[in-house]
Amino acid sequence: MPTILTCTDGSIYSPSVYDHTIWAAKRMDAKVRVLHMLEPQRQMTTDFTGHVNPGERDSLLREIVELEEAANRVAQKRGRAILQAAETHFKNAGFSDVSTEQRWGTLVESLEDFPADMVVIGKRGESADFAKLHLGANLERVIRSSTRPVFVASRAFQPIERGLIAFDGSPSAKKAVKFAIEKPLLKDLKLTLLTAGKPTSGIDDELEMTKGQLQEAGYEVNVRRSSKNPEIALAETIAEDGIDLLLIGAYGHSRIRQLIVGSTTTIMVRTCRVPVLMFR
Questions:
Q1: 3-class SS at 52?
Q2: Count of structural domains within the chain
Q3: Which of 17, 147, 198, 245 has the most CB atoms lying inside 10 A of its own CB?
């Protein structure tokens, strides 16, 4: 049975993450595992240089240890409350095949310990600066490390009926197409294939071949070509075609993929108002 790993930190994005997970799980006939990571509290300074006598130093060290232990207990209690709220959200939506887990460490380090067909995460976490549209601290690291598709939830769930595949002929773009053909997640969605920027050799033939493969799999497919910068072409197509979900490769050297994960956090993921499904 397929499994979806849903990452939560209790942020304002969490209900949307759960709703997108429920949508995906029902379409994939998958079970859900909700994960909340506890990162150990940063150790307080123990540098007591200066005029501190041994007795006072030992007392300060004991207090520091007690404070760190107390902070970790609070974090655990908060994490359990977050997971309980997540479980309640799923059950209230009529979805019961869900389990929860709390773990110490970092999300990226723990991902490979959890077998899953897809990872769902919010675009921004509890520490993100919404005014500046900063991405969540874990998002880019998850995309860089995950070998599985990463579903990035938008701020609020909306019905998903139309998907856009950003296609440049790259292996990761072809993974998105293969996923659409082989997996049930996107079945019955209307799809748009978009290539943007300066045309590359053979891209028209690849587009037509890919269109045929998707049509053979039962999709209604529209092909669009744009000479505009990819970020502009993607934004315009999402608006003009009423796109509800963007599928895109997360790595590579082409400009359309550098929009998503490059040397710096890029504009498309920060400003895109629809969920994004990424492939490496």
A1: coil
A2: 2
A3: 17
